[in-house]
Design goal:
Radius of gyration: 16 Å
Distance between the termini: 27 Å
Low-confidence stretches: none
Number of helices: 6
Strand content: 5-15%
Strand order of the largest sheet: 1-2
Largest sheet: 2 strands, antiparallel
Structural class: mainly alpha
Mean pLDDT: 87
Number of strands: 2
Helix content: over 70%
Shape: globular
Length: about 110
Amino acid sequence: MGYQAATFYNRQLNEDERQEWNAVLALGDKAREEMKGHELNFYLNKLEQVRTKTLTELALHDDQWLDEQTSFGDNRINNYFKWFHVLTHEVNHRGQINILRRQAKQTGSP
C-alpha cells in the first residue's frame, strides 16, 4: 500500500490508509496482534485487493513512468526498482502462503 501511494499518487499514506496498514507496515508486536489468528482467506483476500489495485494502476502507466526517479531515503531510485522490490517481496510471501495452504489441507482447515 505504501508503494502504491508513493508511486501512483506521489504521496504518503492518507489517514484511512494509515489506520488500516500502519501496524502491519511497522511490523512488531502490534502487527502480530492485529494480523494473527485470522482464517487463511482473510489474508488471501487482503493480498488480492492490493494486487488488483496495483495491476489496475500499473496498466495506466508506461515504460517512461518506470524510469521516473524519486527520493527514497537518501537516494533517488526509479519506479522500476521500487516495483521490482515489491514483486520479489510478494514472491517470498507467496511461498509462505503455499506452505500454510498445504498445512491447512493436511489438518482439514478451510
